[in-house]
Amino acid sequence: MLDQVVHLLGYDFVQNAIAAGIVIAIVAGVVSRFVVARNMAFAVHALAELGFTGAAGAILVGASAVVGLLAGTTITALFIGLLGVRVRERDAVVGVVMAFGLGLGVLFLSLYPRYATEAFAILFGTITGVSRGDVVLLIGIGVVTLLALGVIYRPLTFATVDPEVAEARGVPVGRLAIAFLLIMAAAVAEAVQVVGVLLILTLLITPGATAERLTARPGRATAYSVGIALLCILGGIFLSLVSNVPVSVFVTSLSFACYLLARFVVGPVVSGGEGRRTSVARDVAEPVAALEANRALDGSLSEGVARRRSTESE
Amino acid sequence: MTDPLVRFDDATLAYRGRRIWSDLSVAFEPGSFTAILGPNGSGKTSLLRVILGLTALSAGTVDVLGAPPRRGNPGIGYVPQQRTFDRDLPLRGRDLVGLGLNGHRWGFGRPSSDARRQVAAAIAAVEATSYADAAIGRLSGGEQQRLRIAQALVGDPRLLLCDEPLASLDLHHQQEITALIGDWQRQSGGSVLFVTHDVNPILDFVDRVLFVVNGRWAAGTPDEVLTSDRLTELYGSHVDVLRVHGRILVVGDQLDSGFELEEPHHLPVVEDDPSHHASPGP
Questions:
Q1: Total number of domains in chain A
Q2: CATH number of residue A215's parent domain
Q3: Which of A10, A194, A243, B127 has the most CB atoms at less than 10 Å from its CB?
Q4: Which of A105-109, A114-118, A299-303, B90-94 is the least confident region?
């Protein structure tokens, strides 16, 4: 099997896939941390589906699918950003825009005579099929995205975990939200190359969600998230090459396995050591404290009533 | 004679045509601890937002640390109401405090030993070192608020704005947090503006009161402002101020007892009549 892998590494299309895969993994790993912390899974899905519309439109007019994807996700990101500024509005706006856009995608596909292969590629991923030109384009988009993330990383973290104080300290919370939507648009266009539109969440949610289970340190969580995305994409490419099963099957399986492992095996151990309290300790401690408080009230009825009064009038 | 840290002159704030408060002229001196009181919706938080440079006045002027207000003024610390963090959010108290120091700056923020020292010192000052490395979402409300105060003070501000920092804390933690803020104010000579719906937990520390009701306001020492006459005038309906066991209770026909002035529908409705905006202040 090792010989087989070394042999495969000689092929251009394998080298292309690995080069693009590494950049995509780094982008997806960092972005997924923020997607999870900002609760934006639904927006990711909408961006991907409208990326599909963009790609279908691009194929129809004979343009590059990658460019079409990026155009679709970017336009959608701007729509969501401008229409759904308030959190409560956001999901509704995303749903409204997504439904209409996907309808357009179906139209484009039906107008295109040889749609089956292309559609399958966009929906389920084609990383081993990307051309040299696309690889350069993907790496370019990835590097620009990472540079943008590097510039806003710290204030974006602040605005994500602690928006009120961030605003009070002068962080442009609203403009960062729109900037992050555009970064997500690029990340989605990239990740679609590997796993396709329908499986996008496996790269833009799972690594971040897994990393959260492994550490309480934000910097480490981002590093773990990138590591997990790299493992899933590169592992997926190799397994796909030796088995001839589509890449997305392995990427989704690997990322799911990582999540389960973090959730049920590694995570509980880590949070017990790093956090001062494990969830078990706290779940027990709270009812016990409540019980003791009750007992104190019962013990001295008049005092208890007085205390209850004084807390009520606070 | 020192200049006030914040001074409002004939300041009016309106939102969508509705006046929040009018003709506010009040100065907050260095080394003062001011309670900003009033029912919900009376514009207490808006007042802080004006000082933070997040909301512009509709009329009048405000001077903050010797200049017009601007976003991200490093001379101001800010403590919000306690809010729930997700239990799995990868963020330690130490990180929260660190964001208070340099979270507004662009870039990745390479770790510097200088910043680490400042953060550690701020955490030690609020006696939160033992739990500063646990995930913030797993800490109690009181522990989180301690770290909030470290976050607000780590940049060594001259002015500390607190927006209901005691809300949803139990009595014991309210006292702890109040003492931390009061001690900082006394030791550093900084000023505190403390928005609250109940003055009692901070009564030992407060030397000034700004009471805002229905667009009108009164300012002075607690003994000057928190009187039956003054609040009756301010509310436009009969209000009694009772002092019982060192606590202050505000009771009115249309108000619940105690300081539960919260529900806006319990308040006497005052039409937006300009004559009502005559400032009863000094």
A1: 2
A2: 1.10.3470.10
A3: A194
A4: A299-303
Taking the Cβ of residue A309 and every Cβ of chain B, the question of whether any pair is shorter than 8 Å is answered with: no
Q: What is the Cα–Cα distance from B219 to B280, expressed in whole angstroms?
A: 9
What distances in angstroms separate CA A247 from CA A202, A229, A240, one per listed residue? 12, 14, 5
Domain range for residue A145? Answer: 2-274
Contacts of A216 in chain B (CB under 8 A): 90-92, 133-135
Interface touch B103/A150, C-beta < 8 Å: no
Cβ separation A154–B200 shorter than 8 A? no
**B96–A169 CB contact, under 8 Å:** no
Residue B157 neighbours by CB distance under 10 Å: 21
DSSP symbol at A114: T
Over range A18-25, report the average pLDDT: 94
Mind listing the pLDDT tens digit for each residue in A132-189? 888 899 999 999 999 999 999 999 999 999 999 999 999 999 999 999 999 999 999 9
In terms of domains, do A27 and A43 share one?
Answer: yes
Contacts (Cβ under 8 Å, ≥6 apart) of A72 = A50, A51, A52, A53, A54, A55, A57, A101, A189
- Nearest chain A CA: its distance from B274 CA (Å): 32
Domain boundaries, chain B: 86-156
Would you call B170 and A311 a contact, using CB atoms and an 8 Å cutoff? yes
Q: Which two tokens stand for residue B150?
A: 């470290």
| A151, A158, A274: residue with CB nearest B104 | A158
In angstroms, the CA B223 to CA A64 distance is 75
CA angle A242, A244, A245 (to 5 degrees): 115
Answer yes or no: do A259 and A184 share one domain: yes
| Chain B contact for A217 (CB, 8 A cutoff) | yes
pLDDT tens, position by position, A221-238:
999 999 999 999 999 999
Query: What is the strand order of the sheet B76-79 is part of?
Result: B76-79, B159-163, B191-195, B33-37, B208-213, B216-220
pLDDT score for A303? 42
Q: Residue A161 and residue B89: Cβ atoms within 8 Å?
A: yes
- Minimum-distance CB partner of A218 among B83, B95, B174: B95
A244 and A301 share one domain: no
In angstroms, the CA B36 to CA B279 distance is 16
- pTM above the 0.95 mark? no
Same domain, residue pair A245 and A301: no
CB contact under 8 A, A171 and B72: yes
The answer to whether residues A91 and A153 belong to one domain is yes
CA closest to A267 among chain B residues: B88
Are A168 and B96 inside 8 Å of each other by CB?
no
A to B CB pairs, distance under 8 Å: 121
Specify whether A97 is located in the same domain as A217: yes
Distance from the Cα of residue A53 to its chain's centroid: 20
Domain shared by A227 and A295, yes or no: no
ipTM, two decimals: 0.88
Alpha-carbon distance B262 to nearest alpha carbon in chain A (angstroms): 12
Does the structure show a pLDDT above 60 at A218? yes
CA distance B96 to chain A (A): 8
Q: Please indicate, yes or no, whether residues A67 and A197 belong to a single structural domain of this protein.
A: yes
